[in-house]
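Risk register update: the risk of archive-format incompatibility is retired. Evidence:
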Amino acid sequence: MIRLRHDFVVPAVSPAWLADVASALHGAAAGLRVEEGRVLLPRREEFAGLDIWRALELVDGADAERRIWEEAEHDLLDGEFGGPHTPPADGAGADVRLVGGEHCRAGAVYRLTGPAPEGVGTEVSVRAWDPAGTTLLTAGLVDDGPDGGGGTARLELRGGAGGFAGLVFAYEAHGPDGAHDDGTAVEMEVEVDAEAWWFRLRGIPGPPPVRLRSRVQGHGSVLLLSPVTEVDGRWWVTMEVEVDAEAEESQGDDFRDLEDLAELANTIALVWRLVVLEADAVADLRRTADILRGDGATSPPTATRYPGTGPGAASAAL
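Archived output:
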């Protein structure tokens, strides 16, 4: 077993900020319009006014991180969606259908069909939908392409008396016919316990609030994040990684030494800074909800600022 540890610093946020982000996420999803069973997906340019694009322009000299964001942007807004509110042409783009229940209500079922020729289909079921309580989504993926295979995913958002309480995301992929041979089985689970995070900041002991467990080709690794303290609007965070020795050999050079761990910590800190400081995530999500509802011509909502967050706090917090 290989064990590594690295400390890093990120901007602090308040419980109210996390609660508003969770609420705005629900609002953005509910803002999607459905006509005759088809979920309408907007054009990429309709999102041009979001703060996140301006924030990305402030990233200087971070080529690897910039490439990650550019690839994600392409996957989400270029390669996957089928353009304006029209069916995909010639099989290109994604097609999203509401095939059961009511939109963004418990019991809703959506069917997503990826662009040809991959033929990847996903069915998403809403098991629970409560912005103030628990929202639970499950998904099953079937690849009808030449490689076959499939997978399942589960996302749970939890609310509590103090707002956002935590989330769990689990994913499992397997080979054709459900076979979990060593070459195709991938399992991952991310758990965030927001209440445990606040407890740790108050000096109350407990398990690490953020845990990422993964298993690839039969070998596992665990990543843990724990806050140490908050000073001047910044969180000091400890990252610990445990990797099976055999997994380290079979999966390449990931987490081979502290330098690799530091690079991962820098990436996490960069993404967090973009979301918290350089962009207003809450305002962006509310603006996204307007766009998805077809209110893209309306003025952006007034940004809500929180202590220690927002573009104005960037110089003080980092």
